[in-house]
Amino acid sequence: MKHLEPLRERAASYEQFVHTFAQPMSQLPRESIVGNEFALQALWNEQAFEGVALTLVDGTPVKVIEPGRWNHAVGPDFRDAILVIGGELRRGDIECHVSPSDWDAHGHRSDPEYGGLILHLTWYAAPKAKTLSVHVPHLALEQLLPFYPVEIIEKNVKKKEFAGIEHPCLVRFRNEPLALNRMLASAGYYRLLAKTNRFIENLQADNAMQIFYESLMSAMGYSRNAGSFRRLAREVTLTVLEPYPTKTRFAILARVAGLLKETHRELWDLWWQSGCLPPLQPYVWDYRGLRPQNHPFKRLAGGLGILHHLEQLMDVPLQELPEAISHAADFLRKEIGTSTALVGKKRAASVTLNLFVPYRLALGLLSKNQLNALPGEDVSMPMRDTWLRLTGQSSGIPKDGLRQQGLLQIYTDFCHNQQIICETCPIANGI
Ligand code: SF4
């Protein structure tokens, strides 16, 4: 892919940072057990259980599809995990404690934040929690792990100690705003190239459009329902949908996903005539904290609207694309009877950056100059967090998409990577 060479050159300076850290992990005897809750969370976050068959204390097998997002705020320690417990797909939160009875001591029983637990993860198996429902599955690592990966714990604890103080990267970039700017741009190119490569890998297999469709559906799920949307796109593929008009496609997807009610008579009939059956394993949708306009049924309609206009959207200039996407998403708005936009402009900007830009890059339809003026998306927590670490400022977060992508990449590769500690971080040390 010759047309991507200029981008690779620009991503190269960031790439060398990523390649400088090794990830050795020693597995020390369990006599070294530290036994603190933060260490347990770090273990789960790293999923450092290679070769270990996870089971509940009653022997039920547990498979981890997604360990969840490590939550450093109030509430359960991990949000939005996806597990298969005894063959049943479960989606929700995980709370970690050293001993099961810590649940009682911490008084979580009456806290509604803990209403969506799908796992109580503890180090020790006893003493039992008295105030936790017996229906919340309990996994105790003590009986399962033959080792204790101390390096992970030490790195995590050291990283935590840096919270609230000047990070070494801030010291490095304090008087070098241009160097910081260059690094953010390079990290942004790096991230966009990584996304582009997914499409390139599938172009030859003629699969790129299916990948685009899966990613579009996943983007409609935001973070909480992204997994279910992606599953839907994988189970009801573009090939399955191809013979049908957009309205029928929506009816099929909504019914298969368990989102269509019989009261939507017309859509129900369209689905019925298609003969596509819902799966034996129903979809799990997470409605917690969801605003009505973000209901998966509406987002699904929005995704189908974007898909319907894909050809036209491919020709829209980047700066105008978020508005055009938002407009296209409303194609089925009347059918589902809502007055609000199905995909807002900020979400549409995110779809632009994460889907349309990489897809166009893969097809050679974008030049590097156009990337300098990418529309920005909503500032997210990882962007804000990384900017604060790098500059010590909570304001002035870049508004352009390229540098925002750079912040996200640094967050993933370094600031949120539990293998990295700030003292030896290549970003701060200039390699
Ligand atoms: S991991 Fe690196 S970039 Fe992130 S805060 Fe620490 S020193 Fe800064």
Residue-averaged pLDDT = 84
What is the count of β-strands?
6
**Radius of gyration using CA atoms only:** 23 Å
Order of helices and strands: HHEEEEHEEHHHHHHHHHHHHHHHHH
State the separation between the terminal residues, measured CA to CA: 28 Å
Number of distinct helices: 20
Shape category: globular
Instruction: Name the structural class.
Output: alpha/beta
Bound molecules: iron/sulfur cluster
Let me know the largest β-sheet.
6 strands, mixed
The figure for the number of domains is 2
Strand content: 5-15%
Unreliable sequence segments: 22-34, 160-164
Helical fraction equals 40-55%
How does this model look, in words?
It is a single chain. The chain has helices at residues 5-18, 37-46, 102-105, 150-161, 168-173, 177-203, 208-220, 226-235, 238-241, 246-256, 265-274, 296-308, 310-313, 321-329, 333-336, 345-362, 368-371, 381-391, 401-415, 426-429, and strands at 62-66, 69-70, 78-85, 88-97, 117-122, 138-140. The protein is of the alpha/beta class and 431 residues long. The protein has 2 domains: 1-26 and 164-431, no CATH class; 31-148, no CATH class. Helix 6 packs across helix 19 and helix 12 packs across helix 14 (321-329). The structure holds iron/sulfur cluster. Residues 167-169, 389, 410, 414-415, 420, 422, 425, 427-428 line the site of iron/sulfur cluster.
